[in-house]
Write a structure and sequence with these properties.
Length: 875
């Protein structure tokens, strides 16, 4: 059975049992800060499991895209480990329970209409105290007792060991189903049925309290089950992954064989490029933070595997079409992002290839040292590999393990913590949304109806007040410096979402209370009015008059509608790969991130801006319609990759050229934008560009400011008309260039005089001169001139120069070619010296540079550098 067929059969089976088929959640879950990526099928149903909010259905089935990196070292080594994988699941929220879950699992696995597995090849485990599950398997399914194993809480409870070790919260026993292959190999766990029936409170005994409603959460790995059905020894041999392994082999120039020496690295390449492609498709690009860090790690690990197999140029981007081919049936949108994903991956590959050889060379020195008995990669060494050579710590660990070495992770982490700048404080909602107050409001039936599409004013009732991360019944003025949040049952205020900023304004209780709203945020179906109580008293149940700033909202509407015009224009002139990757819509200001492989040309920027303003002049009608996703697709609505849409979506149409799904506030026709000016275009991440533009009043103000500035510059440069400025600037540039030439002659003469003095005072070791000096009144750029002059005039000379500018130290080491041949290295010198001034650096044997932040230690640094030279020269 093919993998795609298995996926559909599973979903069809549970639909036949009354389960609602739900689409996979996105890989980066929205509104869930507890995980970086979606790790399991149950994550999108957290509220249903917890009984929060309205229950639209009581049983569901999904095939969920998942990504886990906790055991990344096992990928390609074991038969079944992946980073990206798909999890088949069926769920019950107070509906069916153990009996149905067990019977349906057995029916799906063994009935010839479905999978038709041989029953004798299946065995199960249950929690040691779960007599109910044991009885269903034995007495109702008819499984012999010898094929039902009772296991402890570490094996058959979710979360593992939770009865004795916690955490507190919902939990329950589970039953796992195993398949025993006819070849006699190791049995394979293919399905886990979790019976969520307890709330764990405190320590044993008697700490498992029955839940009011029992739930079911099951998971069956798609790739693992496909491997069983296809009779292959590993997930990587199934119909969707074997071709990807072979494509990886072709890309690096070796033949893929499962048992071959190159099998493991090629499987890792196949796994990682699949995971990266799926992530980049959803807008996650390589970076040094959060999800982007994981994508960068996977890319660099895969590239390193290919590099060590002899492929020393970019190749991973060429595997993206193979990934899309394997995954396009369940995820057809992948085809649309193929080009953009390949461009992003190639750019990251090229960057890493530029530094990988140097990093491997440095690591090899560590390995050579270990052959003398030291098997530890020090924290300092790992830190330098990380910060100077781009080796993520997980890569260093993996490479160390290949040589039987370990990394001092504690020391590395301390150094990294010192190196990182402390991040700024989060917003009000960042701290509150992970807490319990909002869930408590939802449990009492609280939701917020949004009135703001039609008006900026309205009335509502207070259904919750959050102060100091806790619910309170009332609030008295003054409410203090820390902002608080007021939740209403109805509001015209737009809560920040979809890139559109939240509204500001006021909440009033007659004339007695005034609440100043400085921001509005949304969490699910609740809107939080964040601000300060300026007057009177506010309490839950109060009727309030809510007034959002109409002028500010108008500017936001202009910018938001212009964002859709910009998206249309970019795709028209740059092609379909120019896909939205993020946006920020503010008062007459928009910021738009989009996928594109390189900077836009000035001509392209002009074309895009002209197109936007042509559509504004057209005054095309803007209309909205709430419909289902399928209808929106039929209308050609633009759906952003990585965005999770509800069953009912809001479709925004502009003229006959733009159709997008959007929950933001818009104009009634494009002409109301007035004017749009592109202010800047720049790169912000791998394969991602950013445009900043102004609309309406702000665009007009910008034009006037630019004109006034040109007039002022023209007056300062004594030019009659601004149009003559370019000619005048060219003239001044020519004069400046001549002045620099004249200055350079004087500088060279000064350097020559100084160099002769330095050489006459130099220490001589082994027939070579050592010049280690701090220079005064010299800028950083002039250091190279001094170093070159010293090597030119000094014969055999080793140089270390230091200078302080704006409180920072610059070190430059230089060695003449004859000394390099004798093993004297500028890089060794500058590296030891830099440590003493709190910095680091490196370079070639003949020339190396470093920086530091402690000028007080320059003398010590120069002495250390001289010692390195002295030792290398035999002194």
């Amino acid at each position: 059975m093919k993998t795609d067929e298995l996926r559909e059969k599973y979903l069809d089976f549970f639909v036949s049992k009354g389960c609602i088929r739900r689409p996979s959640d996105v890989l980066v879950p929205h509104g869930d800060k507890s995980v970086l990526f979606t790790p399991a099928g149950m994550n999108q149903f957290k509220n249903q499991f917890l009984g929060i909010g309205p229950l639209e259905f009581t049983k569901a089935t999904t095939c969920q895209k998942c990504l886990r990196t906790g055991d990344i070292g096992n990928v390609g080594v074991t038969a079944y480990h992946h980073t990206f994988f798909e999890m088949l699941g069926n769920f019950s929220f107070g509906d069916y329970f153990k009996r149905e879950a067990i019977h349906w699992a057995w029916e799906f696995l063994t009935d010839k209409k479905w999978l038709g597995m041989v029953p004798e090849r299946l065995s199960v485990t249950v929690y040691l105290d779960d007599d109910e599950a044991f009885g269903i398997w034995e007495k109702e399914i008819g499984l012999p007792a010898k094929r039902i194993q009772r296991c402890d809480e570490g094996e058959n409870f979710w979360p593992a060991n939770s009865p004795s070790q916690g955490p507190d919260g919902v939990c329950g026993p589970c039953s796992e189903i195993y398949y025993h292959p006819p070849t006699g190999g190791k049995e394979v766990e293919i399905w886990n049925l979790v019976f969520t029936q307890f709330n764990r409170v405190g320590s044993p005994p008697n700490n498992l309290q029955p839940l009011p409603k029992n739930n079911i959460d099951t998971g069956m790995g798609l790739e693992r089950c496909a491997a069983v059905l296809q009779g292959v020894e590993s997930n990587f041999e199934i119909d969707t992954l074997r071709p990807l392994c072979e494509a990886a082999g072709n890309a690096v120039g070796v033949k893929y064989q499962f048992q071959g020496d190159q099998g493991r690295p090629l499987r890792r390449i196949a796994d990682h490029i699949r995971a990266v492609t799926m992530c980049v498709h959803e807008g996650v690009v390589p970076s040094n933070e959060k999800q982007g860090y994981i994508v960068r790690l996977l890319l660099r690990r895969a590239l390193l595997e290919g590099y060590l197999l002899g492929k020393q140029d970019a190749f991973l981007y060429g595997l993206v079409p193979a990934v899309v081919e394997a995954m396009k049936r369940p995820y057809p949108d992948l085809v649309q992002s193929l080009g953009a994903a390949a461009d992003t991956i190639k750019e990251e590959e090229q960057q890493f290839l530029g530094i990988i050889e140097r990093g491997l060379s440095r690591f090899q020195k560590i390995v050579d040292r270990s052959k003398k008995g030291d098997s530890l990669v020090t924290g300092e060494e790992a830190f330098e590999l990380h910060t100077q050579e781009g080796f993520l710590i997980e890569m260093t660990e993996a490479m160390a393990a290949r040589h039987g070495m370990q990394v001092d992770l504690d020391k590395f982490q301390k150094l990294l913590d010192q190196h990182r700048e402390t991040s700024g404080r989060g917003s009000f909602s960042d701290s509150v949304m992970a807490e319990g107050p909002l869930d408590a409001i939802r449990k009492t039936g609280g939701t917020t109806e949004f009135l703001g599409y039609d008006s900026t004013t309205g009335s509502g009732k207070v259904i919750g007040i959050i102060s100091n991360k806790a619910l309170t019944d009332s609030l008295a003025s003054p409410s203090g410096e820390a902002p608080v949040a007021v939740v209403l049952d109805r509001t015209p205020f737009y809560g920040e979402t979809g890139g559109q900023v939240g509204d500001v304004g006021t909440l009033k209780v007659g004339t007695s209370a005034l609440f100043d709203v400085i921001d509005t945020q949304r969490d699910g179906d609740l809107v939080l009015h964040v601000g300060h109580l300026k007057q009177g008293k506010l309490k839950v149940g109060d009727a309030v008059q809510a007034d959002a700033s109409a002028a500010r909202r108008a500017g936001i509407r202009r910018a938001h509608s212009a964002t859709h015009l910009l998206h249309f224009a970019l795709r028209k002139f740059l092609g379909p790969n120019a896909q939205q990757r993020g946006s920020l819509v503010d008062n007459d200001t928009l910021r738009f991130d989009f996928s594109h492989k390189g900077p836009m040309t000035p001509e392209e920027i002009t074309q895009v801006e002209d197109e936007i303003n042509a559509r504004i002049a057209e005054g095309a009608a803007v209309s909205t319609q709430v419909t289902d996703q399928e209808t929106a697709r039929q209308h050609g609505a633009m759906m952003l990759f990585g965005e999770k849409y509800p069953d009912k979506v809001r479709m925004v149409t502009m003229g006959d050229f733009s159709v997008e799904l959007c929950g933001g506030t818009h104009l009634s026709n494009t002409g109301q934008v007035g004017l749009c000016r592109i202010i800047s275009e720049e790169g912000v991440a791998k394969g991602v560009r950013r445009i900043v533009a102004y609309t309406g009043h702000k665009a007009l103000d910008h034009v006037r400011e630019t004109e006034n500035l040109l007039k002022q510059v023209a007056i300062a440069l004594k030019v009659p008309q601004p149009k003559e400025l370019p000619k005048r600037v060219e003239q001044l540039q020519a004069e400046l260039a001549q002045a620099k030439k004249d200055l350079s002659k004087f500088a060279q003469a000064a350097v020559a005089d100084s160099v002769l003095g330095y050489l006459s005072e130099a220490e001589v070791v082994g027939g070579a001169k050592i010049v280690c000096r701090k220079l005064e009144g010299v800028d950083r750029d002039s250091l190279r001139m001094y170093a070159d002059a010293l090597r030119q005039e000094g014969g055999s000379v080793a140089v270390l120069l230091a200078v302080v500018n704006e409180g920072k130290v610059t070190l430059l080491a230089a060695v003449t070619p004859d000394l390099v041949k004798k093993g004297v290295k500028a890089g060794d010198c500058v590296r030891d010296a830099a440590k003493l001034v709190g910095g680091g650096g490196g370079g070639r044997p003949d020339l190396a540079e470093a920086g530091g932040k402690d000028p007080s230690q320059i003398d010590a640094a120069l002495a250390a550098g001289a010692a390195v030279y002295r030792k290398a020269l035999g002194g």
